[in-house]
Amino acid sequence: xxxxxxxxxxxxxxxxxxxxxxxxxxxxxxxxxxxxxxxxxxxxxxxxxxxxxxxxxxxxxxxxxxxxxxxxxxxxxxxxxxxxxxxxxxxxxxxxxxxxxxxxxxxxxxxxxxxxxxxxxxxxxxxxxxxxxxxxxxx
Length: 139
What we know:
Blueprint: H1 4-16, H2 24-35, H3 43-59, H4 63-74, H5 94-99, H6 104-120, H7 125-136
Helix pairs in contact: 1-2, 2-3, 2-4, 2-6, 3-4, 3-6, 3-7
């Protein structure tokens, strides 16, 4: 059975070749990073992943807009928050996404995956929303 990382690489071939200019690849990167965060994950990676999920799910950003927000935030070197890891796991994994048929079904599963991962990180929601408001002027 392939590892989650191998499945993510398989999914990346799909998302990077996807013709939609909304750039769903960014959403899958953020969902995967947030879902696989542990004590060794750099705080910046967690913050960027959660910010991407927040902007997409709660503010309606496309993957391309999330990517631009990441680039804007990366210009300012700073100490990133170390957020508490979620107490439970998301109900959807990269394996579920890859199992969905390519096209509309897989794209919808990527969206559901983002929501599922964001839900388990709700303890950090206010910190991420504050960061978006302060650094990106997104309120």
